[in-house]
Amino acid sequence: MGGTVKKRTSNAKGILLIAFLVFAVIVGLLVFRKYETATRVAQPPQKSEQAPGTVVVSLFFASQEGEGLVREGRELEVGEQVEETIESVVTELVGGPLGTLAPTLPSNTRVLGVQLKGDVAQVDFGPELVEGLPSGSSAEMAAVYSVVDTVVANFPQVKAVQFLVEGAPIAQLKGHLDLSQPIVADFGLEKQNK
Question: Which residues sit opposite 14 in a β-bridge?
């Protein structure tokens, strides 16, 4: 009788071990897929009109040390119009990083719309961008260049970004950068992710 109880306990431990291993493999595969997507380098959409689908884009977030910007890959659905896709990309940037990087924009920031004017993308934000952004030149610089570098890196037809708040051009966010003219990308702020 004692042998039967030991055999059942041994079988139960074996089944439990197998179930745990299967669970661990599934979780590992899901984590790997998320990591793989986050570290992919984007291939920017090339056409002004594009078919809806999924693309991998590069989003620029602040480095962990707060010194410069680092790319993070993200898989996104694209719209039929370039403006829609730019709006989706900037909205994804507002959502923050998936990994260990730091966000550059207030999480409650609304993207109200995007218009292309030649090679300038006018990105219209809600007032939360100005109200929620911390004071200081580094926070302002990270916010501005994360948007500009993200848009220009993913959309080669765009050379600069004009910031609007509720449809009106703004001269500054917190008084450190002149935003009265469209801002060109500065990829010199990019750091390698370690």
Answer: none
User: Are the C-beta atoms of 71 and 145 separated by less than 8 Å?
Assistant: no
The one-letter amino acid at 21: L
Residue 58, token pair as written in the block: 């590069």
The mean pLDDT of the chain is: 84
From residue 107, alpha-carbon distances to 16, 70, 172 in Å are 42, 18, 19
157: helix, strand or coil? coil
Tokens of 62: 């602040």
Q: Which tops the pLDDT comparison, 160 or 190? A: 160
How far is C-alpha 14 from the geometric centre of its chain's CA atoms? 43
Q: How far apart are CA 152 and CA 158, in angstroms?
A: 5
Count the residues in the chain.
Answer: 194
- Tell me how crowded residue 136 is: count the other CB atoms within 10 A of its CB: 11
pTM to 2 decimal places: 0.72
Return d(Cα 36, Cα 74) in angstroms, integer. 10
Helix (H, G, I), strand (E, B) or coil at 116: strand
* 171, pLDDT greater than 70: yes
* Domain range summary for the chain, segments of one domain joined by +: 1-38, 40-189
149 and 155 in contact (C-beta within 8 Å)?
no
pLDDT tens, 43-69?
Answer: 444 443 444 678 899 999 999 887 899
